[in-house]
Known about the structure:
This protein is α+β, with helices and mostly antiparallel strands. It has helices at about 35-45, 115-125, 180, 220-235; strands at about 20, 65-75, 85-90, 100, 105, 135-140, 145, 150-160, 170-180, 190-195, 200-205, 205-210, 215-220.
Amino acid sequence: MSTTPLSRLPHFDPRLVPVSGTDAHLPRINAGTFAPDALRQRFRSPPVWQPEVVKEVRFSDREPAEAAVLIPLVMRGAGADSMAVLLTERTAHLSTHSGQIAFPGGRVDECDADVKAAALREAYEEVGLEYRYVDVLGTLPVYVTGTAFQVTPVVALVQPDFRLQPNAFEVADTFEVPLAFLMDPANHHRHAFEWEGVRREWFSMPFHETVGHQVRERFIWGATAGMLRNFYRFLSA
Length: 237
C-alpha cells in the first residue's frame, strides 16, 4: 500500500508542524572529536553503535534503487570547531525533494565502481566539487527513503580552497553549516504528523545564518536531518 508523500500534501510546510521535543538532554560531542585526525581514526576503528533512523514510511511503489550522498566536511581552519558541512538547496522544479536542503548525491550508476565513487561523481556533477579536494573517510549505514532509495552516506574531509560551480538545473544554492551546530542534540527538533492513518516522524535542524543585515533560515529536515542524526550517534558512541 502506498501513501501520499508529505511534500505532495496541499499547503504542507514542515516548518509549521509543531516541535514535539528536542534532545538537549543528550550529551554534546567533545570538540576534539571534530578534528580531522580524530575523524580519520574513528572511521578506521569505528565504535560499536547503532543508527537511530534507518527507514522512512514508504510512499512509492517504485522499485528500490541504490543511491549515495556525500557528507562534505569542509576544513575551514586549524581549530577543531572550524569544521563545516556543505549542503545544497535543490531547485523548486525537480520531481523529488524540490526546494529541500540536501547533500550532493544521487543514484548509483553502472559506471560507478562503488558507492564512494558515485557520491564523488554526483558531487562533481551537482556542485562542481573536484575530486582532488576530497578525502573520503568512510560510510554510514544505508538510509532508506520513502521513495525507496537506499542511500549510503559517504563522509569526507574537504580542503577549503575549492571553487564550486553548481548545476543550475538541480541546485538553487549552496551553503555551509558548522558541524558543531549539527552535532549538538539541543538543535535536533522532533516532529510528528499523521495523514491517511499513517504517522510520520522526522527530525529537523533549523539553522539561521546572517547574510548582510538579514537572517535567513535553512530548514534542514527529513532524510538529510535523519542521516545527520545517525552521524551524531556515530560520533557520540
